[in-house]
Amino acid sequence: MNNEHALALAQHSLEHAGMAPPEDAQVRAERFLREAADSRQVWGLSDGAGWASSGDEASPTVPLWSQHHEAEAALPNFPDFAVAALDLDTLVLDVLPALAQFGCWVGANLTPELGGLEFDPEEMRDALKDNRDG
User: Fold this and answer.
1) What's the chain's Rg over C-alpha atoms?
2) pTM for this one?
3) By Cβ atoms counted within 10 A, which residue in 3, 12, 50, 94 is the most buried?
4) How many C-beta neighbours within 10 Å does residue 1 have?
5) Assigned CATH for 3-133
6) Contact 54, 63 (CB under 8 A)
7) Strand-pair category, 105-108 with 61-64
8) Residue ranges of the domains in the chain?
């Protein structure tokens, strides 16, 4: 799956839910895919036992960022969490499949207010593999 297709599906999921993404959400999501592939890591918020999530309990969103300072900016939403690095191979091979199994979404470079595009974990895995391999 190419990045444009994955971004279109993420955009569609937000529109279907009646939510308009922030104006630069697509740019931030594209940057997430590119920077994650380049740096081979992403940043999330962890409490030592798991990853922070937001949204509906039935289909929560796990926010991830391509830059440490962007993850840090979201910490006020998760007072018991800290910024934690996640290497790309672990994300692609372990974390994203587990999130898919549990019905979670993945937020890509969300704003400090947690606005932005949400990906199906399998779509994100495919887009990251395309960036990593290409």
Assistant:
1) 13
2) 0.81
3) 3
4) 14
5) 3.40.1350.90
6) yes
7) parallel
8) 3-133
